[in-house]
Specification:
alpha/beta, 2 domains, 7-stranded mixed β-sheet, two-stranded antiparallel sheet, globular, binds glutamine
Length: 266
């Protein structure tokens, strides 16, 4: 049993390096560690600003428990906004919907949508083979392997026209110059390829959004995550790409977070 003095000391060490959620992090470390020596080692990693998700090796997302490594972006609770909103836009949730998630990473968005849409099937695409290995493991871990498949790919390249009902993505959208100003957990430990959206953060949307329009079936829906200041720009791109009903949704912190669009049903 870890004594109170030790616990207080660990919290103090975490707080001293600017970790505000020190008590929360320590609670999870103590639950995961087999003994004090292991807890001590984990606290030291956290003091060195490794993300808690890398130290624990997992992260809850929506109703799922996901394995997380430095090969994938740690799923953020902000991203749950997409999982919350998209199913509300679907008239028949039991339909045989075909979903694709571009830049699937840990598989978080795809697997959470599959958990909400019981007859849907999903394809997760990523440029990183090591990310895909994690996504496959997460599908198995959450009992969704029979409805999820994963393959390597460069965004929607090679996906047939009008072949999907739902197309989603949380692409890299941080402006390149901003990455070095982010907290060390993100800057030093998360995959840059999952963060770097080019000079103004919008590079991927320019190519991806017209591609999402191409691969969606008439009546199909797209939903992409965006940065807090990218709502107008990404809505404009969606309209240019011919999407209808283009809308912006905010996250729980009331920041613009998700852009939705529908391909006309004709
Ligand atoms: N929301 C993430 C962050 O700020 C960025 C994710 C992304 O670029 N898609 O760390």
């Amino acid at each position: 049993m870890t004594d109170a003095t030790r616990t207080t000391e660990w919290v103090a060490r975490l707080k001293a390096v600017g970790i505000e959620e020190a008590a929360f992090d320590l609670r999870h470390i103590l639950l995961a560690a087999a003994d004090d020596a292991e807890a001590e080692a984990m606290v030291t990693r956290r003091v060195n600003r490794e993300p808690l998700s890398h130290i624990l090796g997992d992260k809850p997302f929506w109703t799922l428990d996901l394995r997380v490594t430095p090969d994938v972006l740690t799923p953020r609770s902000d991203t749950e906004t997409l999982v919350e909103i998209l199913p509300t836009q679907i008239t028949d949730r039991s339909a045989l919907l075909r979903i694709a998630d571009f830049g699937t990473g840990s598989g978080a968005i795809l697997l959470a949508l599959l958990s909400e849409l019981p007859n849907a099937t999903g394809l997760g695409i990523d440029i990183s083979e090591s990310a895909l290995a994690i996504a496959r493991e997460n599908a198995a871990r959450n009992g969704l392997s029979d409805r999820a498949s994963f393959r390597i790919g460069n965004w929607a390249e090679g996906i047939a026209d009008k072949s999907l009902d739902l197309a989603v993505s949380n692409p890299p959208y941080i402006a390149s110059g901003v990455i070095d100003t982010l907290e060390p957990e993100v800057r030093d430990h998360e995959p840059r390829i999952a963060l770097d959206g080019g000079e103004n953060g919008l590079d991927v949307y320019h190519t991806l959004i017209p591609e999402l329009f191409r691969i969606l079936t008439p009546g199909g829906l797209m939903a992409v995550e965006i940065g807090y200041d990218q709502g107008d720009a990404v809505m404009a791109l969606a309209k240019q790409a011919n999407f209808d009903d283009v809308r912006l949704h905010h996250d729980l912190a009331e920041q613009p977070r998700i852009v939705l669009g529908r391909k006309r049903d004709s």
